[in-house]
User: Fold this.
Amino acid sequence: MSTAASRKITRDVVLGLYKRTGTARVDADVAASFKAGDAIRARNINPTDHTRLPRYIRGKQGQVAVDHGVFQFADSLAHGGGKQPQHLYSVRFTAQELWGVNAPAQDSLYIDLWDDYLEPLDDGA
Assistant:
């Protein structure tokens, strides 16, 4: 009898899942709000329903590292609001920005975030 802990995730398993579920990438002409190098702030939102914006990121400053392209917006899909295609970015946050001055200065976290989660960082911020 196989248990979840004894099953291995192989290349074939991953390819099978991908073929069955496809990709969340959308072929849509949606303007990017940000580009690599842009300073941003994660919006400080507190929805009562589903979001993939981690609480520890909200209100924190980061920098766009990569624009992955246009994808379905997971929050909208979770609430029956359709795909709402938008850009998905890899955003770099320093460890000190997230966890304070005692965090290692050389450490960073990269997290993928949709346009709706981000706002431009004001010059005076």
In short: Residues 24 and 74 are 9 Å apart (CA to CA). The chain is about 15% helix and 25% strand.
